[in-house]
């Protein structure tokens, strides 16, 4: 790396500072001194590990002006983060990298950024859509419309995948997409006037569902005040005709995945339960609170919503206002007053249920349960609120309209049937609490599912195939654009079952993402008639196999442990240790095994999971007796809801362990993990049959603060989100396409150079447009010297012009090994430049794959040509350092059998010769005439720079002393070998010395010995 070049130097694992290379350290050639840009501080860093090249832009241009990442010369992690930071500083929160839109959450409103009218009015003037969430939506809309007009097109439907960690802006991004598509299609429908087709859905109608889903499915977490605790797949159906350019949105549907039910009964410190509980307490009027038995009670008094000791949102959103918005949305979507009343009753009952506490009948109330259950547990007296436990239980019974005498046994006993006889077993104190919590979790999950069902039924019905897995894929399905808002990769101090499922989903999506990119790139090659070369990438299919495969996958082992008698988390962990110990994506150290923990090597890094709680959460089966009691409610409207719960296909109420089925003599179950695996597989089957668009949302800091960009935070997300890996893959192919005419227009100065009499810009344009020739015609356009345009640019020493060839639009089409009529490539020409930018031009060529050891027709490498020109100052040394850093071989010989070191000595280039010797050049290497550098008088001063043992010179090949050049008098004369320089010399030139206790070489002052 040359001196004074701009770089990014690593400060930590994730952070890179701007700076310039000041000098290379003499004591360690692998380290350089970098002066940081934010002051006079200098740091010593390892060049290979800690330094990355900065991007050089045209005069007056900044990174904030570059909308496409693929336009950058260098796209390593440091450059990526620096690019995002500079754009973020000027409120440019979107950029594009190949097929992926990167969206950085600004945590503030940016004027005009989401102005639909302005976006539509500016659109006709654009040659290409700018990086924006609206552009992704518009692109999907256009693709759907275009593909409907193409007979036989298989992938007509569109999917937009939105991913990112909690707080990155996934939910808001999804809203922007939905609103844009609704309003765009409505505008198109309005323009038609008298169409008899169905009315298009407006944006306000479509967005009415969001407050409800957010209220019941979102919560405040440590990372995000409005974190979605479920995944959702929203499908927007359109109506159109193959001969009609306009499409109108006529229906929607929502599917949800993996609701975080455990949050209903437990929250981590600093987190809240789902928003709806706090909004109900803050927004309900006095009459409603009285009806729900919530008067004079606060959130702090309910066990289920005070576990995290966090009661307010920190994003400026008021719970009371949100409650009114939710009620208004329910009315818009057709919820009746009776249905709303039933929903609020269930929520209030859950709050009171959490305060129903028990004590063991054999112990005092204040003592711990000893685990025995000789007698049923009794109700405690005191509760977390000002009410007694009995009062809370009374309210639960009243709200559910059930018999309290039936509810208590259902919470404290379990029915067991053996041989046709039924027994009741008393539950321990801990088991009573578990039964209560399981009931609460299941009720809330059923309620959430009911709400989703109501939201879907409020949308105009679209005729779909009966099988949900084939609805979108089927050819007769309605045209649709889908949006998948899925959880981001998670890693906490303690990672449990929820994180395992979430990270498995991300692992699955990453696999689909990479495969989609590779397939798209391969198809583009085929369409352009370009040879497709396989791209190297890290395949995570083995990690997925370890989780999914039967019968030894993690989900299968978990299901197996859940159905065996007295199955436990410890037993599950031991099965993994035994069956997966040799798997490359699984590990468990002795410390891990002592804690019943294990590690999975995900694509985003290793994650350590605690097996504790896996079995319980995988089963999550409520006591059937509890729901039998609820089914006896005297409230007709509640009974309808409970009947819906019973009929739900997603959860089967069972009294014991998960239902078993025998297939091929292998017991299997329907645990939550396996259900999620099947859901995800069906979802991805749908996605894979559509054209996919990707949005990666980035959270710039953990404080949700505007105008703050945490480089370490962003770097980790780029790794976890697979963005860096995707960019790396696309860099190996053709990330951006360029029209022939645009290419010629941009580079016509090169083609029309004075040396290019045969190929002018107009000639080339005619060939490309009329004959449809490939872009490589441009590289092969020969002048009278056989130069390509890249050769001409290099010969001119114009760094800015050369750098144009290495933009991603052009780079894949360049043949860096194309040689002129003397066999010289562009890198050979660069080593002969005298201009001050020579080393920068050379560095650019090498960084993008030029071969530092490519030989011309005279078998000369670039290092040979560099050694033949004596330049002023350190110019030649800088060029040589650049070549040697890129693995140039100083031992290569040309057609005269001469190495670069021979030419340096011949040209009196001592500094350059020393540099070559430090990199392993051999002074004893003979040329075609047998001349060795070590015999040259000019080489005497170089002996102290020897870094490697010289090659051995056989005595029989030497007839004269290589120091004094006097011939040896006899063939059998005794000859001395120097251990350092390797020369063969006479006794006079290797005198004996008592202080040396032997002979020594007079020139290099080193031991010598007789042959």
UniProtKB/TrEMBL annotation:
Keywords: Actin-binding, ANK repeat, ATP-binding, Metal-binding, Motor protein, Myosin, Nucleotide-binding, Zinc, Zinc-finger. One of its GO terms (cellular component) is cytoplasm. Transmembrane segments: none annotated. Residues 64-800 form the Myosin motor domain. Residues 955-1009 form the FYVE-type domain. The keyword Nucleotide-binding applies. Pfam families: Ank, Ank_2, FYVE, Myosin_head. ANK repeats lie at residues 785-807, 822-857, 896-928. Residues 680-702 are annotated as: Actin-binding. GO terms for molecular function: actin filament binding; ATP binding; microfilament motor activity; zinc ion binding. ATP binds at residues 164-171. One of its GO terms (biological process) is actin filament organization. PANTHER family: MYOSIN, MYOSIN-LIKE PROTEIN. Belongs to the TRAFAC class myosin-kinesin ATPase superfamily. Myosin family. This is Myosin-J heavy chain. It comes from Phytophthora fragariae.
